[in-house]
Task: structure prediction
Amino acid sequence: MAGERERPEDRLEELLSAPNTGETGAPRANETGELSTLRDVAGDMRDARASIPPSKGAGAFAAMMNQLETARMSEETGGFGEVIAGWWKRPVLRTGAAVTAAVLVLGGASLGVAAATGNEPVRNLFGISSNSTIKVELTGTVVSVNGPVVEVSANGDIRVVVIDENTDLTSGGDDDTPLPLDGILVGQVVEVHGRLQPDNSILATRFHLEDGDDGIGGTPTAGAPTQAVPTADATSGVPTVVNPTVGVPTVGSTPSAGPTVDDHGGDRDDDDDDDNSGSGSGDDDGDDDNSGSGSGDDDGDDDNSGSGSGDDDGDDDNSGSGSGDDDGDDDNSGSGSGDDDGDDDNSGSGSGDDDGDDD
Amino acid sequence: MVSERSATARAGQSEQELVDRLLALDGSAWRELFEANYGRVYGYAYLRLGNAADAEDVAASVFSEAIKSIRSFRYRGIPVAGWLFRIAHHETVDALKRRQRLPASIVGDPGGEHTDLAKAIDRMDLGDALGGLKQEHRDVLMLRFIEDRSVRDTAEILRKTEGAVKVLQLRALRAMRARIGGR
Result:
């Protein structure tokens, strides 16, 4: 629109595209501070690029193709086992599958026992070779500790985690030092890798305090509650089950359909994002917003969605009331509607524009 | 605007097609994915790990892991490249934990008019700073400044409009600045 001031993101791009000196690229008086600094940050990244040694990735490509072949063979030979393993992840179907299988194949009283308990013979029957084949990963909050038996709250469920002599019990974080059993405290946020047991407990192969990539450490707060602490990681720590054949992670009890980009290799959620989405909210789409269902448009696209609240800006504000303060600044605004133009003002007339477009 | 949106829609269709082919374990699709993304995955891993051998190991793991996990991927508008890069991030974090190795400084000789910033970067490893960013911020910075892609290319890869990429870029650079020196 004629006479409208240039948006900072456009001006920044103009600076980035131009040489450091010269008429076009030179910062204007009122943007010398921030935009020129941002240009310098970009310049340092470009310098860093030059330090990266070349790699054609021949080894990586060969490994990928080998893996591809393995996956194809697995598909050809392991389909049935995978289907059953998929059922196994659902308690109702798991029970049904166990009962059905037992009746069909084993028969007799011994089969009844196996079916009732869902124990090893039934699992073996379906190609799940042992109770160590179903991998589980979860991040949650310790709600009780009773010797080697730890109850962890994750996504609203309490999971029983058993630690044995083979468990890799560590403090997590960069140093990741060994952790004694009595170092596990109620209220700590922990990450557990383990294997599902017939009694639905998890035998931990790896148990460590959440390392606080998002600034959330494993250290409990004073007077730690006995219920799950709704931290970012705790709430996003959806227990996952890894398919025993190909290691495909799927979301366990999460009502939202299917895994998402955040579910690679199980949902470890050590990905530095800041989402606080929980199960059922439908927001697990790989962005870092805090939105739940129906609120918080933070997709950087050019739509005008995002009605309702939704502070999602990676800044340090606490806004969220009002609508769509998502401007990358550190204000606490949120009043007004939809100012998301990348500047630091608190303006917001109009509504729901969170797009960086020029409409 | 309309053309930009329709271009985005077209990109979405082709992205869905790529996902379908990847799900079918189509070798040419995986090759395509590899060729389009290896450099970024490797570059990111290098920045965080500090040496080429480790970065290559991580990059190899990323694509192998992607094959293992592709069935869990559901295309919901988030590009495959973004998903792949998230795997790269996880793998790099795991590698850092396993090896307990501090990333090497990758910043060159500070000086000139960037003295303050360079000092700041000397204190904070650039790769670590990148690793601490939000996913979409990492994506846009890696594409724009490590891979040297244009705004248009970046928009296509991230399935966003060019305007949205510029906004993301501004925010990402602000976040990066905050992490490396808080100026």
Residues 21-25, 126-132, 212-359 of chain A have pLDDT under 50 and may be disordered.
